[in-house]
C-alpha cells in the first residue's frame, strides 16, 4: 500500500490504541422547516441526542474541518490548542473544535418543546479573540465543510461519530448580478408599466385641476349674482281741495 493509503489505517490503529469508540452516527443538517438552515456564514445541525449515553462524564466537542483534512485528522490533538483554534482556521489549521458540552445537554429522549439544534457560526464577539480558541465564530467562506462529534475524558479522546457529508453555505449575491426583470417579468413589461403609471398620474392631476377650476368658477358666479328686489309702488290718489264757499249769511 502507498503512503497515502496507509495514513488513515495508522490513524485508525492509533485511535484503537487509545480506546476510542466509533459511534455509528453521522451528523446532519436540521430539518428545513426551521428556516435559516444554511446562511452565508452559519449552518444548523441536529443535536446528537442519545448518542453519547455511554460517556456521560465526557466533554463532547464539535469538530469543523475542510474536507481535505478528514483523512489525516488527528483525534489526539486537544481542543483549545493553536492547532485547533478557530482564529487560525482555515489558513494555519485545517480544523477547529467548538460547542463543548456534556451528555446532560443532549438528553435522551428529547422532550416536547426542547431546542434540539446547534447553530454553528453564531458567535461574532470572539472572532479575533485569541483567548477564545474554541469560538463558535462565523464560517469564513462558503466551504464546503465536514463535521463530527468527538468526546474527551480529560485529555484523552474516548468516542467519535462519523464525519458528515459536505456542507456548503450560501453565497451572497452581488447587486450587479441581480436581474432587473425581477419575478420573471420582461424589461419591456416593466417599461410599459412605468409609462402607464406616469400617464395615469398625469390624468389624475388634470382631473383634479379641472375640479378645482369648476369649483372656483361656480363660487365666483354665485358671488356676482344678486336677486332683483321687488319694488312696490303705492299709488296715492290726489284729492282736489275745493275752496269752501263763504258761509252764507
TrEMBL record:
Residues 1-19 form the signal peptide. The keyword Metal-binding does not apply. The chain crosses the membrane at residues 189-214. InterPro entries: Uroplakin-3. Keywords: Membrane, Signal, Transmembrane, Transmembrane helix. One of its GO terms (cellular component) is membrane. It comes from the Eukaryota. This is UPKL2 protein. It comes from Rhinopomastus cyanomelas. The gene is Upk3bl2.
Amino acid at each position: 500500500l502507498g503512503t497515502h493509503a496507509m495514513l488513515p489505517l495508522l490513524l485508525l490503529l492509533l485511535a484503537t490504541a487509545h480506546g476510542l469508540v466509533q459511534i455509528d452516527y453521522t451528523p446532519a443538517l436540521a430539518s428545513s422547516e426551521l428556516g435559516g438552515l444554511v446562511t452565508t456564514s452559519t449552518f444548523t445541525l441536529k443535536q446528537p441526542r442519545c448518542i453519547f449515553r455511554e460517556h456521560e462524564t465526557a466533554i463532547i466537542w464539535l469538530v469543523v474541518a475542510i474536507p481535505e483534512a478528514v483523512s489525516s485528522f488527528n483525534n489526539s490533538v486537544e481542543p483549545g490548542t493553536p492547532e485547533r483554534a478557530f482564529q487560525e482556521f482555515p489558513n494555519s489549521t485545517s480544523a477547529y473544535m467548538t460547542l463543548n458540552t456534556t451528555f446532560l445537554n443532549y438528553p435522551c429522549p428529547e422532550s416536547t418543546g426542547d431546542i434540539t439544534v446547534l447553530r454553528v457560526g453564531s458567535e461574532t464577539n470572539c472572532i479575533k479573540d485569541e483567548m477564545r480558541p474554541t469560538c463558535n465564530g462565523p464560517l469564513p467562506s462558503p466551504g464546503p465543510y465536514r463535521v463530527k462529534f468527538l468526546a474527551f475524558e480529560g485529555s484523552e479522546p474516548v468516542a467519535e461519530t462519523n464525519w458528515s457529508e459536505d456542507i456548503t453555505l450560501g453565497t451572497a449575491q452581488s447587486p450587479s448580478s441581480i436581474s432587473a426583470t425581477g419575478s420573471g417579468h420582461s424589461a419591456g413589461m416593466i417599461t410599459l408599466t412605468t409609462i402607464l403609471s406616469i400617464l395615469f398620474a398625469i390624468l389624475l392631476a388634470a382631473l383634479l385641476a379641472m375640479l378645482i377650476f369648476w369649483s372656483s368658477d361656480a363660487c365666483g358666479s354665485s358671488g356676482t349674482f344678486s336677486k332683483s328686489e321687488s319694488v312696490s309702488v303705492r299709488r296715492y290718489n290726489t284729492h282736489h281741495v275745493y275752496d269752501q264757499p263763504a258761509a252764507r249769511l
